[in-house]
Amino acid sequence: MSAPPECPPRRLRPRPRVLLALAVIAGSLPLFLWPVRFAVDAAFWERLMDAAHLPFFAGVTLVFFTLLGGGKIYSLRPAALAALATTALAAFIEWLQPHFGRTESVEDFRNGVFGIVIAAGALTLFSFKKGKWPWLVLGAGAAALICVATQPAWQEWRGLVWRQNNFPLLGDFESETELHLWRPQGGAAKSPSTASLAAGHATHGGKSLHVKAGAGSWAGVSYSAGDKDWSGRRALAWSVFNPGAAFTLSLRIDDDGDCERAGQRYTDGFTVKPGWNHFQVPLADIEHGPRTRKLNLKAIRRAAFFTGEREPAREFFLDYVRLE
Description:
By secondary structure, the chain is of the alpha+beta class. It folds into two domains: 16-164, no CATH class; 169-323, Galactose-binding lectin (Jelly Rolls, Sandwich). Helices cover 39% and strands 25% of the residues. The protein has helices at 16-33, 42-67, 77-96, 106-128, 132-166, 283-287, and strands at 169-171, 182-185, 187-188, 191-192, 194-199, 207-213, 220-228, 235-242, 247-255, 266-272, 275-282, 300-306, 314-323.
């Protein structure tokens, strides 16, 4: 009787779950490593992306839970392992980001952990078939964590709503919400610019924007105009109170085009004397301000008030910035 034919040796193949886990990691990385630059209302979109870490990593936790054999009743192991794996992935991504032109963020990692905690808690309760009270507690905790994660984006959104509701008024500085539209810029590392609301020195209402322009280039304050349509208006007007010596305050206005070089944007300087100063610039002058083209008044993106490159630190109060 002849011997049975030998079976070919079995090849060891990676487990499909491991391959799927690696695919999840590989698919996640480009989302967090690709440099993203927002041209309009960047602060809002960046804060919204920060908040998006919560649902994203909650979803990744669910994927890892499934890949690790989740669904077993009365077992903490799959949910715990999924939470640990997802937390490690979130930390790894934040560690990698500076090497790809992105910035690592404690807030991003925190929001990711919030999502992991919510997802792992829900998966644990589901595995143990708990009643309604644990779910209510988890729901209340999840709502609190979601509020913390989304609060920065919500504040930025309030600023955009204020801009929409008050246009053509650009700033009267009666509300903290406006500080999400008017932000300090420039100055040196040891002398950064600051901007805050101040009682008094106001021509409209009871408050003004107190700007401390640091020593250094582009020191002052920048307004996020949001590609609003300024056409059909006559002029841009504003008031400045100067408590010190006279200096030159420059105004720069960008549209939705290429404004990198000086000849492609509107820029002009204004002498600010001690005390009150009231300025008005015709929008026709702003439109024809660039040397190489006309400014697109239908999509104004930014306006900035700043001091010169070699100027010392300056202090001034800005108020009632408006289109007339």
